[in-house]
Design brief:
Distance between the termini: 75 Å
Helix content: 40-55%
Keywords: DNA-binding, Transcription, Transcription regulation
Largest sheet: 6 strands, parallel
Shape: elongated
Number of helices: 12
CATH architecture of the largest domain: 3-Layer(aba) Sandwich
Protein name: Transcriptional regulator
CATH superfamily of the largest domain: Response regulator
InterPro entries: HTH_LacI, LacI/GalR-like_sensor, Lambda_DNA-bd_dom_sf, Peripla_BP_I
CATH topology of the largest domain: Rossmann fold
Number of strands: 12
CATH class of the largest domain: Alpha Beta
Domain HTH lacI-type: 16-70
Radius of gyration: 26 Å
Organism: Phyllobacterium myrsinacearum
Order of helices and strands: HHHHEHEHEHEEHEHEHEHEEHEE
Strand content: 15-25%
Strand order of the largest sheet: 2-1-3-4-5-11
Number of domains: 3
């Protein structure tokens, strides 16, 4: 035998089969199948023997094969772009936890933003007969929704609306309006918005709410847009907002990651102090927002609540497949920390 072990016999992966469990327990193969099927007829004594044999051998039911035979599965696809970033990572974690508790098997499809990539994810999920698809980001093409409808597969969209699909949304516009009111209550007249060029329905709603409320109250809004809604995008937006002498007195950031980038840029490249000279409000309330480094005032978007509502919509859709599309709108609230001055008289 050489040092690479080329003469060693190749090992193949082996899963304990129902036939082996039947042989060990001294019963038929069908008896094993009935023992692992809820409600199936099998005597208590025989079930006990089968379970003991299965435990000793390490047998697990092949749920995927069983689902394929029945033309159903417990798989639920989570279609998401950049699932490792910011709030999205916490939402994926909350959804997988909620789905597992439900008895489903979550499968995360990390896809891009193009129609071709989303359609590829769609084909994968339909190929494995996933029982539902939940889209966390991106803009699903109409063909995605139509194919889901023809296959009778529930489609739930989070953070946006799509014709023919159930959705869960946050009151983004209302949060934007409240951010403007908080700043204006301090007497600020020059406000800033830190957003992103890669605009999504949620970021557009936050921007529109903020700018419309400011305009209605006679305040000027200076705009800064980074390439993406992440830390680097926040720094890029900050460079635009603070490039000249006419900089904002307070900035509403489209999310916490953008706020972190903006705060760090201001601290390193300007003489402004937060919150004495500049108030900053973010959105999402990810755990890092509470870190002493940022101490960020932000709007809370609870991933566990969002996940619970998504699962509830899935249950309702499966119970009433012909029901018209359902739209679940959640409120958010501001979490006050040290990055923004909040007047004591302001009613939150």
């Amino acid at each position: 035998m050489d040092s690479n072990g080329d003469d060693l016999p190749k090992k193949t992966q082996h899963y304990v089969s129902a036939v082996e469990v039947a042989r060990k327990a001294g019963v038929s193969r069908s008896a094993v199948s009935r023992a692992f099927t809820p409600g199936a007829s099998v005597s208590a004594k025989k079930r006990e023997k089968i379970m003991a044999a299965a435990e000793e051998l390490g047998y697990q039911v092949n749920d995927l094969a069983r689902g394929l035979l029945a033309r159903t599965s417990r798989l639920v696809g989570l279609v998401v772009t950049n699932p490792e970033l910011g709030y999205r990572s916490h939402l994926v974690a909350a959804l997988t936890k909620a789905l597992i508790h439900r008895g489903s098997v979550p499968i995360v499809i990390n896809t891009g933003r193009t129609e071709e990539e989303l359609v590829a994810a769609q084909k994968t999920l339909f190929g494995y007969r996933a029982e539902a698809t939940i889209i966390l980001s991106g803009s699903p093409p109409s063909s995605f929704v139509e194919l889901a409808r023809r296959n009778g597969q529930p489609l739930i969209v989070l953070g946006r609306s799509e014709t023919g699909a159930d959705d869960v949304n946050i009151d983004n516009e209302g949060a934007g309006r409240e951010a403007a009111r908080v700043f204006l209550a301090n007497g600020f007249t020059a406000l800033g918005f830190a957003g992103t060029i890669s605009r999504t329905p949620t970021t557009i709603e936050r921007e529109n709410g903020f700018c419309q409320e400011a305009a209605a109250r006679g305040a000027n809004v200076i705009m800064g847009h980074g390439g993406n809604s992440d830390y680097a995008g926040g720094q890029e937006a900050a460079r635009q907002l603070f490039a000249g002498s006419d900089h904002p007195q307070a900035v509403f950031c489209v999310n916490d990651l953008v706020a972190f980038g903006l705060i760090d840029h201001v601290r390193r490249h300007t003489s402004l102090r937060i919150p004495e000279d500049l108030s900053v409000i973010g959105f999402d309330d990810i755990p890092e927002a509470a870190w002493e480094t940022y101490n960020l005032t932000t709007f809370r978007q609870d991933p566990a609540v969002m996940a619970a509502h998504a699962v509830a919509l899935l249950d309702q859709r499966q119970a009433e497949p012909d029901r018209p599309p359902m739209h679940d709108r959640l409120n958010t609230h501001i979490v006050v920390r040290g990055s923004a001055r909040i007047p004591a008289s302001f009613k939150l």
